[in-house]
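> forwarded from #structure-qc
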């Protein structure tokens, strides 16, 4: 029988388990996918821990995962444009991607580019839409010096590359482990920790020919004071976007555009084609079998590796 990741109560990684389930049946406008890869996202750890209890409905046993890529095995009534055997990527919308089979709406998937690896396709939707929204929110372009906090992560890494493609100088804040990769993408790399403000100002000043000597925009994918740091650096609130510190966003009047602001198949398709062509990169930090879901989340929550972690049933 097909398997699926479930949790029966709020809690830590140990509440996750894999069970056998009945094969799901596609409804109106839905596709049934044989899952080839399903991405992990920090949102799922917060949901599982009960952080959104009372705000996001959860029925136990609860399913996990939204990002997905797979092969169409059946189509429900009203489906057009997708046939059995089609290779697609997208989002389940209401969780359940971390399984052998998953249901998706035909409006939330697109054809997988042949050159796009399954692992990347399965982890793409959330990071592509969030990164695209972040870059659009701060209006990155020629003459800008854009700081990206968490620049070696999934969202931060794509946001840094997209801002660079728009002609901005990009300064990526990351641990030393991510610096070589950032530099390979023509992104300045600076380390976290004491003296960060001075390092950022120095990095911005080295690109005086590009325009202002000071940072002009900031994308925060980490939280922990980066909104305030951007304001201290003189960046206008309208050119700061955070997807990790909504309380600071509200308090200081900065933007908080995330995945929902760019959640379209057109956006994901554009990013997917750029990755397939080698113009962008989404590193894969780890690939785990479905039965090792706890190991995968342990790496996500405690290892903080650069790039995406995916499950491959």
């Amino acid at each position: 029988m097909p398997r699926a990741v479930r949790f029966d109560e709020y809690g830590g990684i140990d509440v996750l388990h894999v069970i056998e389930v009945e094969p799901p049946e596609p409804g109106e406008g839905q596709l049934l996918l044989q899952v080839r890869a399903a991405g992990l996202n920090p949102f799922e750890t917060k949901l599982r821990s009960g952080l959104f209890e009372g705000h996001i409905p959860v029925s136990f046993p609860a399913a996990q995962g939204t990002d997905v890529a797979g092969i169409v095995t059946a189509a429900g009534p009203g489906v057009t444009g997708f046939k059995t055997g089609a290779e697609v990527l997208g989002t389940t919308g209401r969780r359940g991607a971390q399984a052998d089979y998953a249901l998706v709406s035909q409006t939330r998937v697109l054809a997988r580019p042949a050159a796009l690896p399954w692992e990347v396709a399965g982890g793409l939707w959330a990071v592509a839409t969030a990164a695209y929204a972040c870059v659009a929110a701060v209006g990155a372009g020629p003459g800008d010096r854009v700081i990206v906090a968490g620049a070696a992560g999934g969202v931060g890494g794509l946001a840094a590359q997209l801002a660079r493609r728009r002609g901005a100088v990009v300064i990526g804040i990351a641990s030393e482990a991510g610096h070589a990769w950032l530099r390979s993408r023509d992104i300045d790399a600076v380390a976290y920790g004491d003296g960060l403000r001075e390092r950022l100002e120095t990095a911005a000043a080295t690109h005086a020919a590009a325009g202002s000597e000071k940072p002009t925009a900031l994308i925060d994918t980490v939280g922990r004071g980066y909104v305030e740091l951007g304001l201290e650096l003189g960046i206008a609130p309208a050119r700061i976007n955070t997807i990790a510190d909504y309380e600071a966003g509200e308090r200081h009047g900065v933007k908080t555009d995330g995945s929902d602001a760019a959640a379209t198949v057109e956006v994901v398709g554009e990013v997917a084609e750029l990755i397939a062509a080698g113009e962008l990169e989404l590193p894969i930090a780890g690939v785990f079998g479905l039965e090792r879901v706890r190991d995968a989340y342990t790496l996500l929550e405690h290892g903080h590796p650069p790039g995406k972690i995916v499950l491959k049933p």
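QC bot note: The chain has two domains: 3-124+282-311, 127-260. Residues 125-138 form the longest helix (14 residues).
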